[in-house]
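Lab notebook, design round three. We kept the backbone fixed and only want residue identities now. Task for the bench partner: fill in a sequence for the structure below.
Input structure tokens:
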């Protein structure tokens, strides 16, 4: 936790440093767009979300057509898991709860992009980039929608989709506490087409850290995203 907060702080210090040394080759830009999020190894639907924020780009070696960009984004990660099952409680396996899990997580995302652009003409450029991004959970509004239950006979076994975590924090690690999705690390690959002051950009974000205990169940997974942005120079 401390290391993550320190990393975010250092990134923000870096941003303020490059801003203070800005010149005509550097720029701020507004980002507006959306994403499609997949929960790896899960059949997730209704998974469209929003993504918007600000970015700053500078060219360390202008003659080589390279660039480095730092962005601060607000993003939503949405999706629905239909007709899933779990026990009625951590201690009681006599009833099967059937319901939908509506994932709704809002995050702060800080991507760092290292890229190269190809000049098509004076006003048109094609760019490619890669780099990491840190995500930090802001709000988790994930809920489940009750649809029914099944009563099991004594001794009858049932294959549940998910199980509860123990509500007693002394019985399991703090890292698996309720709604423990807090910090993530992703790797990004992307491309974009810039015409004058407008830039259409596509990015694929591959999760490197597993999200755990999204809604008090053992629902684990990696959130991978396809992200489309319209960047407007300021």
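Proposed sequence:
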């Amino acid at each position: 936790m401390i290391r993550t907060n320190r990393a975010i702080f250092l990134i923000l210090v870096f941003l303020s440093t490059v801003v203070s040394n800005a010149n005509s080759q550097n720029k701020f830009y507004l980002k507006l767009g959306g994403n499609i999020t997949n929960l790896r190894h899960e059949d997730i639907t209704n998974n469209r979300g929003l993504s918007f924020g600000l970015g700053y780009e500078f060219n360390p070696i202008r003659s080589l057509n390279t660039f480095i960009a730092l962005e601060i984004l607000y993003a939503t990660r949405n999706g629905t898991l239909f007709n899933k099952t779990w026990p009625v409680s951590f201690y009681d396996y006599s009833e099967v709860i059937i319901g939908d899990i509506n994932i709704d997580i809002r995050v702060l995302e800080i991507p760092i992009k290292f890229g190269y652009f190809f000049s098509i003409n004076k006003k048109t450029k094609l760019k490619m980039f890669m780099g990491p991004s840190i995500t930090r959970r802001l709000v988790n509004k994930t809920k489940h929608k009750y649809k029914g239950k099944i009563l099991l006979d004594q001794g009858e076994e049932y294959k549940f989709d998910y199980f509860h975590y123990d509500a007693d924090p002394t019985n399991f690690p703090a890292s698996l506490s309720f709604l423990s999705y807090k910090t993530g690390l992703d790797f990004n690959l992307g491309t974009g087409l810039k015409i004058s002051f407008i830039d259409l950009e596509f990015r694929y974000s591959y999760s490197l850290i597993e999200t755990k205990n999204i809604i008090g169940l053992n629902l684990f997974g990696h959130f991978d995203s396809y992200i489309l942005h319209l960047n407007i120079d300021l």
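Keep this in mind before ordering anything: The mean pLDDT is 83.
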